[in-house]
Design brief:
Length: 147
């Protein structure tokens, strides 16, 4: 049997889970896990990242006399500040299946991590690190507060 995950959203799903559990073998070959759903990053966080923070960085930051687009800064920030996967509380920061790096055939590593796999806590920490770097290392002044 392959792993199955159910999100308890109504009585019908609850009943299906109970029927499945009742029909499982009681021989130590199966387990049942119950946990709170991890909240994914919010739309508000994503809007703040793209609509304000990356825009402000792209407009204010200069490296060796050059400015870079929000897309370039996004890629740079992901490589620098997405969770590596070794953090002690990684299960609170990312969703199942998260991976930051993949190895290419030539031995180089490629950042395949995505902010879409961050929880709300993970996205908050990620944005705090991006903002701290941009403010202290690049001199970016951000607009007031977090929406």
């Amino acid at each position: 049997m392959t792993e199955q995950v159910f999100k308890l959203v109504n009585e019908s799903v609850r009943m299906k889970c109970m029927v499945m559990a009742r029909n499982l073998p009681v021989d130590g070959s199966m387990e049942i896990a119950i946990r709170k759903v991890k909240k994914l990053r919010s739309g508000q966080q994503n809007a703040l990242l793209w609509g304000a923070r990356l825009k402000e960085i792209s407009e204010q930051a200069w490296i060796c006399g050059k400015q870079f687009s929000a897309d370039v800064w996004h890629e740079h920030m992901k490589r620098e500040f997405l969770p590596e996967g070794t953090e002690p509380d990684i299960d609170r920061l990312v969703t199942k299946g998260y991976q930051k790096w993949a190895w290419l055939p030539n031995g180089e590593r490629d950042c395949i991590g995505s902010t879409t796999k961050l929880t709300t806590l993970g996205m908050t920490r990620y944005m705090e690190m991006c903002e701290a770097y941009a403010a202290t290392e690049l001199g970016v002044r951000f607009s007031a507060g977090r929406e």
